[in-house]
């Protein structure tokens, strides 16, 4: 390594192997109950939960530590309604012709369609933007690196943090998403990546059986 400013890395607890194994099992038990939820309760959720989850997301590994993300948190009924109108218009085009038959067949077991009432029911819509340019200091316009990877990891950590707080989420991806820049007052240099719908699940929420079928370890990994 070349000389650079350093600090000792002492924050990781030195668990025993048994503790590590137990914790790995416990975490899997927690995270395996995460589901994409399409039925939300209108109940309010404290803003502090969202703030802490966003701070957790902001610790994600990323290119050159430029942290190339922005989270626009929509809470106003007017903005949610406007987002729903725009998203449903695009979803109608998608489901009524733009999407290939193969794509629609793949979505069939999820039961999704162009109706997105949850966009007005859930207490929070977090619109996630990727910054192609930025850097570390506010106002910087440097090149950012590994932007999609960085924002993808941060989004995964955000979903995980919200799940850990007992909240349901849905990654919603209207296509195309350009309308989100204006709606959220974000510059054209930022690319909207997805809308994360956040809240409590409705008491009668259901999940598609299809979504519960997870590939076993021997299919998702190889050991060399
Ligand atoms: N964006 C659409 C379609 C959609 C696409 C995939 I791939 C999904 O896993 C789910 C939905 C929608 O939100 O309905």
From TrEMBL:
InterPro entries: Nitroreductase, Nitroreductase-like, Nitroreductase/BluB. Keywords: Flavoprotein, FMN, Oxidoreductase. GO terms for molecular function: oxidoreductase activity. Residues 31-200 form the Nitroreductase domain. It holds the Pfam family Nitroreductase. This is Nitroreductase family protein.
């Amino acid at each position: 390594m070349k000389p650079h400013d350093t600090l000792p890395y002492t924050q990781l607890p030195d668990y025993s192997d048994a503790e590590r194994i137990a914790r790995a099992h416990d975490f899997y038990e927690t995270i395996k109950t995460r589901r994409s939820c399409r039925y939300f309760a209108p109940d309010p959720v404290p803003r502090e939960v969202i703030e802490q989850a966003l701070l957790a997301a902001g610790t994600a590994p990323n290119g050159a530590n430029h942290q190339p993300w922005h989270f626009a948190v929509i809470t106003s009924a007017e903005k949610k309604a406007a987002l729903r109108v725009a998203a449903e218009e695009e979803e109608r085009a998608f489901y009524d012709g733009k999407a290939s038959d193969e794509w629609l067949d793949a979505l069939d077991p999820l039961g999704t369609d162009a109706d997105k009432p949850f966009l007005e029911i859930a207490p929070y819509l977090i619109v996630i933007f990727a910054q192609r340019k930025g850097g570390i200091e506010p106002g910087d316009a440097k090149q950012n690196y590994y932007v999609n990877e960085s924002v993808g990891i941060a989004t995964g950590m955000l979903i995980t943090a919200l799940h850990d707080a007992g909240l349901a989420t849905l990654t919603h991806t209207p296509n195309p998403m350009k309308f989100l820049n204006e709606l959220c007052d974000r510059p054209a240099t930022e690319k909207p990546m997805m809308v994360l719908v956040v809240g409590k699940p409705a008491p009668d929420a259901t999940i598609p059986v299809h979504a519960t079928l997870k590939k076993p370890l021997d299919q998702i990994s190889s050991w060399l």
